[in-house]
Amino acid sequence: MKFKNKGRKIYKTKEKNYYGKSPMGKFLSGALTVLLIGGIGFLGYSVAEPIINYTKHKGDEPTITEPPVTEPVTEEIEKSTSAVPVPTEAPTQPVTEENYMAASLKETDLVSVDALRAAISAIPKNEEIGYIEVPLKAEGGGIYYASSVYEAQTALKSTITLSEIVYEVENSGYKPAAVISIFRDNSMPATFYDGGYVFASDGSLWCDSQGLSWSSPYSQRAVDYSTAIVLELANAGFDRIICSDFIFPDFTEYDLQVLDPILSKNDRCMALTSTANLLYNTALSNGASMQIEVTAEDILCGRKDILQPMLLTSNNITLNIEIDKLGRGIAAGETLYEFKGSPSEMVEQCLVLVNGELVDFNTTIKISGVTIPQQELTSIKKIVSEYGYDSFVIG
Question: What's the pLDDT score for residue 98?
Answer without folding.
Answer: 59
